Amino acid sequence: MSAQKSRARLPVIGWREWIALPRLGVGAVKAKVDTGARSSSLHAWDLETFRRRGVEMVRFSIHPLQRDSRTEIVCETAIHDERLVRSSSGQSERRIVVITEVELLGLRWPVELNLARRDSMGFRMLLGRQAIRGRFVVDSGRSFYSGEPQLGDS
Fold first, then answer.
1. Domain 3-138, what fold?
2. Which of 44, 67, 71, 75 is most open to solvent, judged by the fewest CB atoms within 10 Å of its CB?
3. Whole-angstrom Cα distance, residue 24 to residue 124?
């Protein structure tokens, strides 16, 4: 089967999508789908590392919605790794990496997320090419193939 035929069978997503992080208790976060970024990143602060039953853990806070500092979710998960990550500005910094599930278009799969302060960035999350490779085709001219989330009163 040619690469073009196999790509045609992949679901299409836009350059930005609403996704869920169910294991972190995040029902919706707007993510920029960035095929130029190798890894995925989540805006997080108040990072606190600790051990639980011999497992290195991290607790952190996120504001899942842009321009909304009232809605805050505190997350806890195991630390997968700590890596040197180069930002879009070319600066390298050591970041905690976690593995969690992402949900988009009814599909769920595990992704690596590095945790970083993204205050100055337009999106709370960046979904990089490693997370979407072989799963989706990106339509760079459209957004929100997954639709708008039901956010309630938050």
1. Cathepsin D, subunit A; domain 1 (2.40.70)
2. 67
3. 14
